[in-house]
Write a structure and sequence with these properties.
- Helices cover 67% and strands 0% of the residues.
- The protein is mainly α.
- The N and C termini lie far apart (75 Å).
- Residues 134-184 form the RNA polymerase sigma factor 70 region 4 type domain.
- InterPro entries: RNA_pol_sigma-70-like, RNA_pol_sigma-70_dom, RNA_pol_sigma70_r2, RNA_pol_sigma70_r4_t2, RNA_pol_sigma_r2, RNA_pol_sigma_r3/r4-like, WH-like_DNA-bd_sf.
- The chain crosses the membrane at residues 188-205.
Length: 206
């Protein structure tokens, strides 16, 4: 017997996933509605081909529904879907000879560590009046830096989950976060200095 599931009566991820694996189409619909937008946002950080991202997402849901009985259990559906989508996009891009950010660059982040206060800095900046400047600074990041920023601070995934999704070691995740935050600060400082300079120049001319 299939039990009706809605967003207001939604169970936890583990129970929802088991219901989905058991053939409950309502569970599939809830999973789709819950994660379709965030999957698209994540996919477009891996490739600029929006059509490819949409195709991969549709293929992903068709594939997991067909193979639902054989899927492993999970207590984080978002993590499971992100990891599966990244692999699917990487395979599709390889087939089409398109570039996708994938894997670890040897030696790129050796010898760096991440400071504990820096994660708080990102959250504070995003919630402050400087949010607009932060968004502009983000546009200067590399694809890998944008991806890890999205996974860590927008989707709140753990370092271990990010390591698995991005095919990195946990230490490389820490180091990449450190490098990303350092780049953000550098660009943010430049933007603020530029705006101050423009303001002073306008004041002198006024």
């Amino acid at each position: 017997m299939l039990v009706e599931i809605t967003e207001t009566t939604r169970p936890g991820d583990a129970d929802l996933w088991r219901s989905f694996k058991g053939g409950n189409k309502e569970a599939l619909a809830v999973i789709y509605r819950t994660y379709i937008r965030t999957l698209y946002n994540y996919g477009t950080r891996l490739t600029h081909d929006d059509g490819l991202v949409e195709d991969c997402i549709q293929d992903l849901f068709i594939e997991i529904w067909r193979n639902r009985a054989h899927l492993a259990d999970t207590d984080s559906i978002k993590y499971y879907l992100f990891r599966a989508l990244r692999r699917k996009i990487a395979r599709r891009c390889n087939q089409l000879n398109k570039h996708v950010q994938h894997g670890e660059l040897p030696g790129e982040y050796e010898g760096e560590t991440v400071a504990p206060y820096e994660s708080e800095w990102v959250l504070e900046e995003a919630a402050s009046a400087r949010k607009e400047h932060l968004q502009k600074a983000i546009t200067h990041l590399t694809k890998r830096q944008k991806e890890i920023l999205f996974l860590r601070y927008y989707e709140n995934l753990s370092h271990q989950e990010i390591a698995s999704i991005m095919v990195l070691t946990p230490q490389a995740v820490y180091n990449l976060i450190h490098k990303t935050l350092a780049a953000l600060k550098q660009h943010l400082t430049y933007l603020i200095s530029l705006l101050i300079g423009i303001g002073l120049h306008a004041g002198l001319l006024g």
